[in-house]
Amino acid sequence: MPYEFYYWPTIQGRGEFVRLALEEAGAEYVDVARRPKGMGAMTRLMDSAEKPPFAPPFLKDGDTIVAQTAAILLYLGAWHGLAPKDPEGGLWTHQIQLTISDFVAEAHDSHHPVGVGLYYEDQKEEARRRAEEFRESRIPKFLTWFETILARNPEGPAHLVGGRPTYADLSLFQVVEGLSYAFPKATGRALKKLPKIAALHDSVMERPRIRAYLASPRRIPFNEDGIFRHYPELDQ
Fold first, then answer.
1. What is the edge-to-edge ordering of all strands in the sheet holding 3-6?
2. Interval 37-73: pLDDT, tens
3. What domains are defined for the chain?
């Protein structure tokens, strides 16, 4: 049976990391909330599950429900060859993904530093300060760490872990895509010094299933409702 994937139907957000893994794996899945009455189905499952997810995204595989992006990818990686089979390699891939989750949270907080329940317009001044620190310090710090991992991979700098693509590679691709949308100036400057990340991004984009997905209507465009938002005043 196809996987049932649950996430907000109009944004990429944290769910996009899961979508990329499902697409690369060639897995059959239903993006439930994007279907008619899908939001109601998502809400009912959250309300009725014995082990309810705190929030989307979550994945249903038969009777198994897995929530949290990193946990979903850990689950899919094991089933679809998107992570090393040895425990040490699988754990290392998971650690990288958790760090990506931290990075994504900081990207979100660059435009919502005070509270997620407030509009951006209610915290613009605070966002200017937070975005400056994110641009000047946090983007380079995180990306330099990923560049170092690529350089130290004993099987070559084409991948973060081992000698074949993992879900961590797909997720780093998505981070670069999101940052390039939200902070094109700052991200462009950073990537000039990080050729291995730039090469990984380009190689993921050219993978046949990913390329087909990016060109399809299944790929939701970036917008100012998701995690990665472009406010020109925040990108200097």
1. 29-31, 3-6, 58-61, 64-67
2. 999 999 999 999 999 999 999 999 999 999 999 999 9
3. 3-80 (3.40.30.10), 87-223 (1.20.1050.10)
